[in-house]
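Module 6 notes. Inverse folding takes a fixed backbone as the condition and produces residue identities as the prediction. Think of it as a translation problem where the source language is geometry and the target language is the twenty amino acids. Below is one complete input and output pair. Work through it position by position during the lab.
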């Protein structure tokens, strides 16, 4: 009996999530169907499971849908002025490709940065630094899977102008 309640509650949570993320006729029909099935299985265990399991999921789905809606309303930009911090431990160099993560100052998002190193001295300069970098380049980024990925970060901007070294 309790296993059936868990199954129906999980279906109810899934259909409510479906309605929150994709509100259309199919998700509404599925939600109504699961509510009708739930009505035939009402008991104290079922209601307790709905409240204990359903409430956190419902709150999470609503919060996440709100965050996605805010992200979708942000204007698309080809370039932006950004600033952030690069930790020396985050820098990896593979051949002449530099890859690192930076924490942006404005929204505290972590972005992955890529750059092409042009010389061995540049590579050694990056590897020898043991201090905190402050990043302030102008770069082109594309939004992909809720992360901003910087794609055309010029290595000269990084090496000469854009990074202020702090002690």
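Target side of the pair, the amino acids:
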């Amino acid at each position: 009996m309790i296993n059936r309640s868990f199954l129906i509650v999980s279906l109810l949570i899934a259909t409510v999530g479906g309605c929150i993320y994709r509100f259309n006729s199919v998700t509404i029909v599925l939600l109504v169907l699961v509510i009708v099935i739930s009505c035939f299985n009402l008991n104290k265990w079922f209601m307790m499971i709905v409240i204990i399991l359903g409430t956190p999921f419902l709150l999470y789905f609503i919060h996440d849908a709100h965050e996605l809606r805010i992200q979708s309303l942000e204007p698309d930009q080809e370039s932006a002025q950004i600033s952030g911090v690069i930790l020396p431990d985050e820098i990896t160099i593979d051949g002449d490709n530099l890859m690192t993560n930076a924490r942006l100052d404005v929204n505290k998002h972590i972005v992955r940065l890529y750059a092409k190193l042009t010389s061995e001295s540049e590579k050694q300069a990056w590897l020898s630094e043991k201090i905190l970098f402050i990043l302030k380049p102008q770069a082109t980024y594309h939004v992909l899977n809720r992360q901003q990925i910087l794609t055309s970060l010029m290595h000269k901007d990084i090496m000469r102008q854009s990074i202020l070294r702090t002690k």
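Reference fact for the lab report: Helices lie at 2-21, 25-39, 44-73, 120-128, 155-162.
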